[in-house]
Amino acid sequence: MVLFDEDGQYVVDCGPAAVSGGHWVDVTPIKGVFISHLHPDHGLGLYSIRWAVQRPIPTFLPPDTTELDDEGIGHESVRIVNWLSLRPNRLDFFAAVEVDGLSATALELCHGITPTQGYLFERGGVSIAYLIDSKGLPQQTAELLDAVDVLNCAVVDATYRPGREDPRHNNVDEAIDLGVQLAARVVVLTHVGHHNLSKPELEAHVEERTRGFDQEFICAYDGLTLTF
Ligand SMILES: [Zn+2]
Ligand SMILES: [Zn+2]
Fold it and tell me: What distance in angstroms lies between residue 36's CA and the mean position of ligand 2's atoms?
């Protein structure tokens, strides 16, 4: 996801597509990079961005904790040694930072054994919550978002098809329920897996499930642009 303002952009996670399609890096100055966790689908693009010939780019990462499953096996993740233009900072859950007028609060998420953080971005009265990868929300995160006056947009993990249960990701129905709980004006359903419904089926399902709601639910697609 990319947040644009008048004179720059903030990159929020960057997967493999950013490696091959790095042209966008040069279009507008990158003011900051916010990473939820370093699974390859969220961090491989860092290899592209770090070459950006710009001023140093503040880069925010989740807490660094060992990630091993019950059998002592780690999930594959991106490990960068030479950060070049990137300036990595570890954030504690619920810590807040400000980068050129954009406020970002790190939100603890539920992504199995992987320490993962979403973000609440706030600027000029606009609030956007980024909540992937996660199955539901920890109570403290839910309470923090509940206290937001108006949540303009929530970007929600909707990895699996209806009925599929997983401890690390929502299915589409759980994502819709979370969007309702958050009372966001616009709910963007994303991180949709290849094993989910086909795009037309998914859009029809979401339309059916959210008909009459006073919130807008959107199935994300490449190039989706929203203005707030
Ligand atoms: Zn992940
Ligand atoms: Zn992911």
Answer: 9
